Amino acid sequence: MTNRKKSKLQARFVSFSGIDGAGKSTQIEVLCEYLRDAGLKVRVIPFWDEVARLKGVRETTGHTLFKGEKGVGRPDAPVNRRDKNVQSAPMTLVRYFLYFVDAVSLRHVVKKSLSSGADFVVFDRYAYDELANLKLGNPISRAYAKFILSFVPKPDVGYFLDADPVQARARKPEYPLDFLITCRESYLDLCRLAGSITVIDPMPIPDVQRQILGHALAHLPLDYSRAKAS
User: Fold this and answer.
1) pLDDT at position 8, please?
2) Architecture category of domain 2-222 in CATH
3) What are phi and psi of 22, to 5 degrees?
4) 165-184: per-residue pLDDT in tens?
5) Residue 87 to residues 3, 53, 130, 142, 202: CA-CA distances in angstroms?
6) Could you tell me which residues come within 8 angstroms of residue 189 by beta carbon, excluding any fewer than 6 positions away?
7) 217 contact partners, CB below 8 Å, separation of at least 6
């Protein structure tokens, strides 16, 4: 029992957020590889796969109602998605409901993952990535975002990978450029609202890697003695 409690206390928990094409997957792989090489147990939680609920509702609205294309855009095969970039009032109400359901799910997933025996848990996207889809200049949406931020567990560190929307879309062409520009501003607004999200400025990939590793090691002290003992 003592060892299990100790493991829970020592588990570290981070999240990565950002507009599509910001380079989240690349940075997560680099951080996880470093931690695993150090002998630590790392678990990655893909938000859309393990946290998001009612996926049938989302697919119906995106593909059936709004005629959006499926798949992940690549430079050689761009797609035109129609889901989070649809900003109508009815869709905002649907998002309020879906995001609360996901917030409840997230609380459960975080609790379960931190007691799974992993030393380090990394969330590939988080509740932040949903809240950034709302028009945070609207007082109701802003109050709603504050409620969700107070309801979901706060990561030890939450990273927002800022990115030039033009370059991001070139890497992952799924949404119109004007939406990515608006989305980036919404993320930055959310970072100010939350007050606890670490913003990584746009820079070459190797520089981002060095900044994240340096920041993680400084702000997430890890018990390497456990890794050596195992």
Assistant:
1) 42
2) 3-Layer(aba) Sandwich (3.40)
3) -75, -15
4) 999 999 988 888 999 999 99
5) 48, 20, 13, 15, 26
6) 136, 137
7) none
